[in-house]
User: Fold this.
Amino acid sequence: MIFGKYVNQYYRKYWYYFLLVLIVDTLVDIGQLLLPLLRGNAVSALNNKAALPIEGVKTWDRFFTGYTSQFTIKATEDLPLYKTDLFILVRIIFTLGVLIFLGRRGWRLLLGRIGANIERDLRKERFAHIQTRSLSYYSDKKVGGLLSYFTNDVQTIVICFTDGVLDTVDLFALGAVSRTRMRRRSYQITLYTALPLVLFVIFGGIVGKGEAKRFKMSSDAFEDLSDFTEENLQGFSVIKAFRKEKDKQKSFRMLSKKAEGSSIRYLRFSSLISASVNVLLAFTFGILYLRCAYSILYNDASFAGKITDVGKRRTFTGYYESLIWPRRAGGILIDYASKGRGAKKRIGTILSSEGEIKDQNNPNRETLKGKVVFSHLSFSYPDGKDKVLSDISFQVNPGEIIGILGRTGSGKSTLVSLLPKLYPLERGQLRIDDVDINDWQKEDLRKRIGFVPQLGYLFSGTIKENIAFSEKNKKKINFKKVEECAQLACVDKDILSFPNGYDTVVGEKGSTLSGGQRQRACLARAFYKDPSRLVLDDSLSAVDADTEKEILEHLRNREKKVTTFIIAHRVSTLENADKILVLDEGKIVGRGKHQELYETCSLYHDIVERQKLQKERD
Assistant:
């Protein structure tokens, strides 16, 4: 079993399943303990060749409490076969076996349901949680590492809830009933057999922490290997282009070797615990068997108690044999608990992380007009010291098109990433519709903004589904609207040229489309959302000049005027913008229209001249 801050809720949520497992498994354990009693009484009767002096015993009770007449094996003229003690005993054992089988089948089904439900809930909860993190959270998190949290660690915790719960029930229920019945026959021997249990508890407490440490090291090594594999699968074309296959294979072997070594160290330690438990059990059982035999042979009632013949010894040792599994289960529980603590700690690092952006009790706002005011805004990434943006001040009126130009690394993408509240900001630096951005709900801002990044990302699915990505219900996709948005983005002709048109399935990240097609499909996706603000982060870089000009013309001629931010490296993209901002090293070094900047801003003038020269060369 496993307990902790993030897992206790599942015991409360599925308490009825856990209760049923407890009841069914306890009944199965009690049924198992009837078998040594049946066999022992039969052996006693056969060995003594006489009746056991028990009065008032009913016909069926004699099989459980002792025989008042000789144990019959063969049928006679007066005694049919089905009435012989042997036949009835076999029938009782068979019936118990069937009931035990059904009981075990029942708790397996119940545990399967518990495991499936908890695994689903764990993944849903963790996925929902990481969706609330800001972009800064992912700056030091690797995809492969996050995936390992959703696979290995989740499965480890689920095992603690299923097999761990079952082993705990067996450890206490089967162990307690067995010891109670053993104590009634010989409390001296029962007390003697309890000594290894004390040693077992001490042993488990000592080695448990060491095993948890080794499991965490093994999980961390697997996380590194998963991340390396995921990264190289994503960039396989670059690896092939630079002929780095052998270098990557060498690195993969090193990481595999590290993961292998960590796993072997953990398994070696775990196997040592299991072997030690088994040796301890075998040693204790051997001494117990010899001591019982000695007590019977020499009539040592002070030690043997009520164990007076071979049959009762068989019953007693049968009870002790039933303790072997609970003790082994205890060893397995040490393993589960150690792995569970490691997995819970790793997953806790995700769930314990708090979002940097908090809405608190901000009211919901139904409309967004598009007015934006930056007031002396300075910004540094949470994990960085240097300022990326410094003293940014400007105002955007609803419906205006704002162009943003600058050298690589000047802070253009950072500036527009603040608009959907992707990073935390100090109060008073950014206002949306005359309301401080910290007083807006994230949901209200993001559902009204269309964001098109430079690296257009498409999800596995059809082109139609990707364009209508903002539609919550796929069955309610407005196909006419999809077509209109594709036309606005000038990608409709490309789509119709595909054999399946809008039902064409794109590969992962849209790998079956060209760079320009991906960018325009992402632009159509933003149009479908019908946003109040539109951000194009260099999202026309892979589009030819004529198509780009047509798309910008569509933007300007739309009936609904949308506040639009366009980041571009080509001056031609921004020439007709209402206002152009020129950024350099995180500061605004120029603002105005195209001709004004060409005459007053040296950086803008240089960029224009270089692009003219490049165009003449081409």
